[in-house]
Amino acid sequence: MKHVLLGGVVFVALLKASVGGQVANAADMPVKAVPYVAPWSWTGFYIGAHVGGAVGTTNFSDSFGPSIFGKVRSPGFFGGVQAGYNWEAPGSPWVFGVEADISMLDSGRHHHVLCVGGRRV
Fold it and tell me: How many alpha carbons fall within 13 Å on the CB side of residue 91?
């Protein structure tokens, strides 16, 4: 039981020293403030690409009866490119930029229905 109590006292003392206490410095060593320098910069040109897929489903209805086609799936593909330039303001968290992009969707599956109605027998 004494070890648990001693451990708790040491933990609280260390917590107090690390959170609310002062940091001890040597009297003959001045403390210099080191300015923060980001390890990278957002300034510069970039180029990229994007791709993806799409799928659509169409339900056919017919006023003369049930459709002989039911549901038709239309898969598709899309892709594109983007390019731009970013500028990070010195000493600021702000980044300003210009970007241009172009994309294309190809859902070229065409389903032509050449009949009207039709009842399943």
Answer: 1
